Records
---
Amino acid sequence: RIGDPDRHNFYSWKAGAKLSNWPIRNVSLTFETTQSSPLTYKHRIPVLTYASNKFNLGHYMRDNSKDYYVELDINPLPRFHFTSSYLYATHGNEYPYIMDGPYELDEYPFMKDKTWSNEKISFQADYEFSSNAYITVGYTIRDIKGYAADGKSAQHYLSKFTPEFFHGETETFEFGFNIGF
């Protein structure tokens, strides 16, 4: 199947890179991306799925999905750490693992329709005021949407992958205190 553009293997991959202290000292830039092809974590025999107690053990977005993540870390002063990040994640059609379906199992199209998306921007500042004692402040803006596909409503997909309090455009403010590890 490797050379056939209409067929695929059941795989998921993740790649990333991080650049630290160059060209600017105390600054690092991280990039990661993940892609999972259709039916990667499913099987027609329930005990052979990549799950335990109906909980997927593969990528958190399951099969037929992709995401991109970028993070900028800055340490402007000793004991002070600032992080900003951007995430864009999408999920495609939910295909059943059936032998007599409309496609052969290895021919389901990747991301034919978008069923769910998450766009998130985060900012976080940490200050270590004493050895292994931190104060953290964070702010997150997110836009999580569902899309109608395969005869199911946008609300169906939105509710399937996202808790109700994160539906649509939301903002979160965080404050934390940590002593120890």
---
Amino acid sequence: QHKLLMVLGPTEVESDILKIASCPQEYMRTQDYTLKWVKIFENLKYCFQTKNPVAVFASSGTGMMEASVTNFLSENDTILYINGGSFGKRWGDIAKKHKINAIEIPVDFGQSVKVENIEKVLSQNKNIKALYATLNETSSGALTDIKNIGKMLKKYPDVLFVVDCISGLLADEFLQDEWGVDVAISASQKAFALPPGLGFMS
């Protein structure tokens, strides 16, 4: 019996996609197989609206969040993160797990952070290496103004801008290159409407 998924993720997967998943395996050292991956990677760049490469991980969304911390920061670095709900809070939890100093900008549940509040903290803490934000806070549905945060961060060129687009990519507007986002992450089980298990990092 098919149980209809009525949650934000994992989402329903279309029957034609499920049929593809049941096809026989392909040998990976053929030209056809290689060309399929070339097309996939080009289309992922389009999804993120970037000219830069997109890496694919065998990972959950949380695994992608952790990868964006461990690959760009070192122990005792300092980050700033926006906490507007369960997934914003997760940035701080991951950072602390890896002994990275995490400064929190708390936001009332269901509300969006004010850009001037971020700039105030940045101006008072010159050692911040990265700002971690969430495009769409899944737990509340609140959108973050990534576009104008990116504009503001042009004054702070040494601060890496990392955005969790796990539930927002393809559902909400997101223009990575144009908005000045350095690192963006997503996953297969949300608006991509694919089975869980793949993570994407641009």
---
Amino acid sequence: PIENLDGDEIRKHLHPDLGFSREDRRTNNRRTAYIAKLLNRNDIPVIVGMITPFRDSQEQARDIIEEEGEFVLIHVKCSVDTAEERDPKRLYEQAREGKIEKFTGINHPFQEPLDPEIVVDTDQQSIEEGVEHVMRQLEERGLLDENLNDEYSFPITRGEEQEITDHLTDLG
């Protein structure tokens, strides 16, 4: 099991009271890191997809999560121009027109992480190449379970394999 914490969903459902000031972003990131820590404590790996524009918040998340589990900072790098080209909601355009305040990269700063464990440069890599790069890096760090799909001719998870093994053992 892996839990995916989407930054927009977390903000919408758990932190709707927060704005986009530096302090509110720090609070949002701290709370989200704490949720990830609690899930890690219960052996649930977590993927958090959110904009964390300030280095102090990036390091704060690391400090919180590493109390209970592994922390891997993946910097998904993208130029502002490319992000704007890919923006289906036209948020960048609205920010340039002054309709959205404190929009990261336009009228609010973004500090690239100093030492991310993994960097995916979306200006240079396709989605498939980026995913492959991340998976390979996580595997090299020993953070992925062995891919059982390569071993069997049908898909099976490690948990399902254990259930079958336990059942067969019970049968004697």
---
Amino acid sequence: MAYTFMFSQVTRYLPLFFQGLWLSLVISLAGMAAGSLFGVVLALGKNARRKSFRNLSAVYIECFRNTPLLVQMYLLYFGLGQFGFHLSPLVAAILAILLNNAAYTAVIFRTGMDAVDKGQTEAGKALGMKDGQIFRYVVFPQAFKIVVPPLTNQFISIFLFSSVASTISLPELTYQATYIESISMRTFETFLMATGLYLLVTTVISLGSGWWERRLARY
């Protein structure tokens, strides 16, 4: 039996698709930005002189990298609710992505920092620079150039994995696609549209990252 495509039954819901896409971008950007800052802190903790800081950072990174984002999100949204801490779906999603992303970006930033020539750190000390100044003006700028590609990949992963937020009733793109499919009864067309939007955004991110990498390479 031939299948008749009826995209007109789906395109009428484009505003819902774009609302979901916007929310997916919001939680992904918020989780990436805040998680990356936390990741820098964890990366510094892994290289700290005090063993307690190194161990604490290591435990955090291993725990969050080796457990699913969905489980972490459930713990924050459903689990904390049992103790009287009720988070909204938006807050729970951003917090879960933030905490999960921090563990991954910590490894990325640490790799970038370790790739910077140690001789430059010694040169900074010879010039009388403090540790904080060496990190800010010598190590981090060079490490950041190195980690742009893996950070881009991480952001793309976060954007795609943000779809799990639909399971806690956050109306992001996948949630909206599921809702549209339920009222239009056009499964293939609906999720093909959602797939196209995910692909469009990830392609733009990849192209933008490539342009930024070339720009950074000039300096």
